[in-house]
Task: structure prediction
Amino acid sequence: MTGAGAGIEADPEALGRRAAQPDADPERILLVVRRIEDGALLLARWPDAPQPMLLSLDAPDPDEGFADGVARFLRSRFAVTARTPRLHTERLPVRMRHPVKGSEATGFLRVAAVEVSGEPSPDGALAGIAALTPDEAARVLSTDLEHRALALGLELLP
Result:
């Protein structure tokens, strides 16, 4: 691979297969979503959160596939059409609930970047969608983890 994502892009189907194993470390995907039409990054606004944030999702089922799972998720949350997502190789350690065991465990967030098209419209659970430049997004994200995730996602985008 050459260009954006060279050497940093992971195999998303391997993530899905690994996540489906009952003894696997829990992993979630943080999405860096960029609209093709204007280059704006799309962040979720939740009713109970003061700042916009990156969307997250469980690893898509291996039977659905990574690209189809991310596309379905973004269609349902933002009403946009997704291009092929790219998954970063770096895993960010966090405390999270284990999906099978139910207990707290060290899990990982994986960053995926995806370009989308269409006029975004939030689903009923969201308070809105913020369309921001990369610099604006970096200013509004509230944690070091989100800042790192944003940087990793931007590395993957062309």
